[in-house]
Amino acid sequence: MTSSEVLLGIGVIVALAVGCQLVASLLRVPAILLLLPAGFVAGALTDDVNPEKLLGPAFSPLVSLAVAVILYDAGLGLNLRRLKGHTRKVVVRLIWLGALITWLAAALLAIPIVGMSRGAAVMLGAILVVSGPTVVGPLLNYVRPTERLQRVLIWEGSLIDPIGGILGAFVFHGVLAGEQHGPGSQLGKFSASIAVGLAGGAIGLALLWLLLRHLTLDEVLSTTLQLASVVLVAAVCDAFRDDTGLIAAVVMGMALANLPGLDMPARRPFFETMVSLIIGLLFISISATVTPQSLRHVALPTLGLVAALVLVVRPLVALLSTFRTDVPFRERWFIGWMAPRGIVAAATASTFSVSLVQAGIGGAQKILPATFVVIVATVMVYGLTALPVARWLGVRRSARSRPLLVGGDPWVVELGRALRSAGLDVLMWAGLDRERRSIADAGLDLAPGQLLAAASGAGAELEGITDVLLLTDEDDFNALAFMTLKETVEGPVHRLAPPTRSHGVVAPYTGSEALFGEGLNRPALARRYANGARIVTHRVDGGVPAGHDVLFVVRPDGRLFAATESSVPTAGGGDIAILLTPTADPSR
């Protein structure tokens, strides 16, 4: 290919990757729904986006390194200390029991249905155990199941990626070793591959631990260092033994996430951006290599495999994983109806299938197209049916708002009681013991002390929260918390206005719109409350009483709307207004 054709092809791949993710975000659907068809169509219509022709022999190693980066990032989310109680019990079962059953069932079914050899079928089964949060997350955000379902399925998707990556790498080396003559040779080659991956992971972990522990690095340089270390270690391992870099990368991520005393950055915007771009590029590139000819004799048999996985295997996994737990049967069935495959399945299939074909494994050429069909079919099935199934089972969250109030001053506690009396499920958090006692004494739900610290690193800790109201008497805390939480909460985050626009070290520079109308800043609210003003609820029939300030409006369906500096929600018939009453003091 000429340099112009290469440049055009790379430009089209990048444009398709980012464009599909952008459109998917606007439509609130998983990006994979657009990425796979776009790459497949582009690959069928033109050779300019075929990465095997653009990059030649460099394509497969680059895919392997890209998958290593994705698995390292997934491993960083595998903080076992955050998996507790009931969630831990169900999720752990879904991981080990689900992976085992899915692997064995898919492998056994692939032999007669898809027409694969035993080695290729075992490899395909290992590839298909993964799901992935990049697919499950958008689906759950659209369906809005109950908090427990959301938490269980997000955790399963987050944990199964790195564990599935390890399983895939182990099985791949086991299949290759199985082609060698003599059990001693098979065991030796398999053990050597695993040893290279584990040793590489240990060396990479030690390197990162020393650098991150003893060097003062900013957020960008810290994440850049991690990216370089993962790529270097994975590349060196792959140079010694094919595809051992995946084992090293996921071991590095998992171990780093669970090392005590290591202060990892709460958020890694550079790394997150890089992983998001890599996912888009891989989907477009890999699907472009799947030709209509390769699907001709694979598509229909693989749909039979998909039917078995969706209708039999996944429901069985869900029932066994929730056996003897307090999970209601309706929720158990929904867990059994949510297992789409995603990027790790596609990328590992692309990475492993080439080597297996070169090794002469029977049916290995069917692994990538079969995985492609499974991904498309499962995403389509679950994407189109998850919402009606959730409605039919009655496992969707209520449309009612669930605000989190941060602060423990007396007027904040009274606001929490007023919102609860308006029918909302209110959660409160405060830092001081006396404030937490006053919240508990008022009969309001009190969030655990570590809630905000945990939420700064992962939004999953705030699942179910629709609004955050930052109401402490520390303006800079409110501003900093606003900047952090607005990225991890699916709904609006509001904060109190400081005394003046220039007050504080951080508060004046966040650019956020403050709560309540003009003049109702933090000290004004506290002063008016001290002078006798109270926060009350008022069912709106003929308007808002004179002299009262509207703080919030709760619609009949339970949705909460806050008054801000620029706008005050209009209260109509049937609405409940949260009002601040006048004070007896004319100076207010």
Explain what the structure shows:
The protein has helices spanning 3-27, 32-45, 51-55, 59-76, 85-113, 118-127, 133-143, 147-178, 183-214, 219-240, 245-258, 269-289, 292-295, 299-321, 329-335, 343-358, 367-393, 410-421, 433-441, 451-455, 475-485, 522-530, and strands spanning 403-406, 427-429, 445-446, 467-470, 493-495, 535-539, 549-554, 560-562, 576-580. The chain is mainly alpha-helical. The strands form 2 sheets. A 5-stranded parallel sheet has the order 3-2-1-4-5, with helices on both faces. The chain has a 4-stranded antiparallel sheet with strand order 6-9-7-8, with helices on one face. A hairpin with a 5-residue loop joins strand 7 (549-554) and strand 8. Helix 10 (219-240) runs antiparallel to helix 11. The longest helix is centred in the N-terminal third of the chain and has 32 residues, at 147-178.
